[in-house]
Amino acid sequence: MVDVSRVQKELTECNRDKEVSGVSIALHDGSTISHLTGTIAGPLGTPYEGGTFVIDIRLPGGYPFEPPKMQFITKVWHPNISSQNGAICLDILKDQWSPALTLKTALLSLQALLSAPAPDDPQDAVVAQQYLRDYSTFSATARYWTEAFAKSTSTGMEEKVQKLVEMGFPEDMVRSVLKSVNGDENMALEKLCSG
Amino acid sequence: MGYDAMAHDASSPAAARDAKKKRGNRSAKLKQSKLDVRREQWLSQVKDGKEVKAVVSPGAAAGANSGSPILASPHPPLPRRRAEIRTREGEPEDYKEDSVGASQDVGSSDHESPLHSPVSYNPPVDCLQQKHCSGNGGRSFSSGSSAWSSSRSVSDSDNDTGGSPENDDDDGVLDDWEAVADALSVDDSHNHQEPVPAAPPVVPASSPEPANAATRQEPIKSRTRAWSPDDVFRPQSLPSLSKQASFPASMGDCWVAMGIGSAQKGILLLPISCPICYEDLDPTDSSFLPCPCGFHLCLFCHKRILEADGRCPGCRKQYTSASSGGGMTGNECEMGNLRLSRSCSMGPRY
């Protein structure tokens, strides 16, 4: 089974400096420690700047001796990330995984992957073609996707959460509902009141 | 002579039982066989002693008065030590009752009196010893001289006196049981056997006795280290408390040494916990450098990795190639030393 104590320590360790690193991990639904949700901040100076990218993390039974399975939930326009399903092409998540790596270092590697695409080894051939042939279009598309998919749920998220929590709703419920309605404060309030 | 002390010990049976509990189940079989052998041997000793008593006891008494080395020097500690050994082996009460019942005619009826018994019980054993010295020659002499303090040599002397069929079995059990002490007794057995040709009848009792006693002291000491520190009958002079205290200290030394060693190899600071499983590294793990890259990990994780792809988590190189490069072998030597030192220092604690 998953090394629970290691994963718990990793979570604590990773979330300790999430403001600095721009990387955080949380339990996906709280029921199992083998299903996590990671978030990374879009690196500065890239089309992904300002976005917050959510990554679905599933830990296989052999973790940390087997790599975690990671997949972008947030839609990303990137040569090494599938624009369809968020599948990631990154060696350390496959054959170059090492048990000395952690979820945090893997997420940081994803962050680095956003800054430094590797179009020669693409996951999404269309994006890779665009990146190689027409970088400006690629950059614009990537920026648009970041605006469209990586920011809506996160802009002012903390303020919205704060507001709803002050209304008396539990914070974790507020967050999950806000996430489910894609950050729409009014819909979230409606859902919270009805649920 | 041992009787009075035994009887004395039996007056505090709770302490004796505590000691018995501490022995644990491991020596249960040994206890039983020893008990049988002892009983027979003591019966024979008592009989022998009684026979020779009339002849030798005046001399023995005179020797004690004159301060002869054989009688004066080894004796004062003897009653106590013997009683301790018996108590440690967890058979004081049963044995005492049996032997006392069998040798009722020898001693007085008042076994509880410490004043009375030395007089009445010393002679038989002294006589036995003297008989060995003069009659049977070197081997029996030395073994007889050590009969006081070592249960092993008690069975030796039993051999000489035509002992019981359980002797071999008993010896075998003892050898197994004291396998830890074998390394110590190797030297001692050399010392012990060399004087055998020289020791014989030529020397009556005085000069070889202290020498043999001295050589036999070592295994005795090593055995008495098996005392638990809180044992009531544990001799005050035993240094095993300092042993215990030195155990963490030696661990600290290991840490220091390893820290220095790894620093010299240009490795990062010694990790406190395994980077794979996040469990604390013990000194064995910390000295375990399976890969020349210096990546530390615990033995469990290393084994797990070897069962899979066998690549070092630090540098992703195959462990097999790394092990032939000398990093593995050197470390295995180091690990061996570490284990040895640990088992040595933990041995006395049982």
What features would you describe in this structure?
The complex is a heterodimer of chains A (195) and B (350). Chain A is α+β, with helices and mostly antiparallel strands and 195 residues long. Chain A has 2 domains: 4-150, Ubiquitin Conjugating Enzyme; 157-194. Chain A has helices spanning 4-16, 18-21, 103-115, 125-133, 135-150, 157-166, 171-180, 185-194; strands at residues 23-27, 35-41, 52-58, 69-72. Chain A has a 4-stranded antiparallel beta sheet with strand order 1-2-3-4. In chain A, helix 7 (171-180) packs across helix 8 (185-194). The longest helix of chain A is centred in the C-terminal third of the chain and has 16 residues, at 135-150. The model of chain A has no long low-confidence stretch (mean pLDDT 89). Chain B has 350 residues and is mainly alpha-helical. Chain B folds into 2 domains: 2-238, no CATH class; 241-349, Herpes Virus-1, CATH 3.30.40. Helices cover 67% and strands 0% of the residues of chain B. Chain B is built from 18 helices and no strands. Chain B has helices spanning 2-10, 13-23, 28-66, 69-72, 78-88, 92-102, 117-136, 138-145, 151-160, 166-177, 179-193, 195-198, 208-224, 240-264, 283-286, 299-307, 319-324, 327-346. In chain B, helix 1 (2-10) packs across helix 6 (92-102), helix 3 crosses helix 7 (117-136) and helix 14 (240-264) runs antiparallel to helix 18. The longest helix of chain B is centred in the N-terminal third of the chain and has 39 residues, at 28-66. Chain B is elongated. The A-B interface holds A 3, 5-6, 9, 62, 64-65, 96, 98-101 and B 275-279, 295, 297, 301, 304-305, 308, 311, 313-314, 316.
